[in-house]
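User: Please fill in residues for this 162-position structure.
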């Protein structure tokens, strides 16, 4: 983030902040004189704690809206391949990047149902509980989102939904 400003005595200051996920990683100040640079640095040092508090508040709010799940169930297809979904033409989509791209379940029963549906397609798989931080919004909550056909509604399932 670059900020250029003119101080009331006519001196110009250019402040460059390099932002990283953990906060400000580098501050670069270019000024007309050492005194101007020192005044600009004092101003920046006053603002940095406020920026950090604001960033912490935004991160906390983000985690409140979309919390992180640390351990989840993933569907392993082979040593390095994980299930991602079913393509509309019926092909199995897989990935080696299970942490970001693989289908992810917090409910073992749903993960097991996914394994059973894959077994019906003659695809060997198994559910594994792994540690991989995922946002709640990326968790699979129904098999239809993976490309499986919708399950027929039965009297028992409709009674459970009421």
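Assistant: Residues filled in for all 162 positions:
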């Amino acid at each position: 983030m670059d900020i250029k400003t003119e101080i009331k005595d006519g001196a110009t200051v250019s402040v460059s902040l390099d932002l990283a996920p953990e906060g400000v990683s580098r501050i670069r100040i270019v000024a007309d004189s050492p005194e101007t640079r020192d005044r600009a640095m004092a101003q920046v040092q006053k603002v940095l704690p406020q920026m950090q508090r604001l960033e912490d508040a935004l991160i906390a709010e983000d985690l409140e809206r979309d919390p992180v799940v640390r351990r989840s169930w993933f569907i392993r297809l082979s040593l390095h391949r994980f299930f991602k979904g079913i393509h509309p033409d019926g092909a199995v989509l897989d990935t080696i990047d299970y942490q970001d791209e693989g289908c992810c379940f917090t409910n073992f029963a749903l993960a097991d149902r996914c394994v059973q549906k894959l077994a019906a397609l003659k695809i060997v798989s198994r559910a594994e509980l792994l540690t991989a931080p995922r946002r709640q919004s990326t968790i699979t909550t129904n098999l239809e989102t993976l490309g499986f056909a919708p399950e027929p509604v039965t009297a028992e399932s409709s009674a459970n939904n009421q």
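For context: Strands lie at 2-6, 12-20, 23-31, 68-76, 82-86, 92-95, 104-105, 126-135.
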